[in-house]
Amino acid sequence: MPQHEASSTTDSPVEIGRRTFIANAVVALGGVMSLGIAVPVFSSLAPAAAAPEGEWSALTADQWSALARATATPSKVSFALRDQDGYFAPTDHAEFVWAIKTTDAEMRAERPELYGNEKLPYPIVNLGFTLFSPSCPHLGGRYAWIGDQSRFICPLHGSQYTSCGKHIAGPALRGLDPLPLRDYNGRAEITWIEYKANSPTHLILKVG
Where are the domains positioned within the chain? Predict the structure, then answer.
């Protein structure tokens, strides 16, 4: 009977190269899959970024006079809000805020939640005033100061607030939302902030 040749125990260079390629491909694929898992995990663990710098709107002399008239009784202050939308040129539209003359100590006493765990990334009191967004924290309706009742009242669902913005009645889950005010090169400026509605905390959705 013919004798079969013994199989070679030494692999050819081609076979070695093929196995090396497959092994490297498996390692690389595993690395990509691990990265795909790790990125969302580490992203969820990373701290939230600070509120971004928004557009600031300067008050005119007349608007500053309206702000200066504010006392413990709120004053309505109109201004031109600068909008920047994507690639379009900035535009201005009329907006307003409610202002009260107050101190940091008074606001800490009336609105301690603004200085605790919810501490906002800007001063609550600046230049001797606090400004409030005109949007009701419940569902965004426009509330007003009712002088004979000495409180802010939203006509949509009846939420009520003190002059310092403390929630005292109605379905709203928090007090009024402060807005930033600053002195920039001798001019008072306001920036707009959009907060999440119907939430017990002041969650910032958009600045400027």
Answer: 56-207
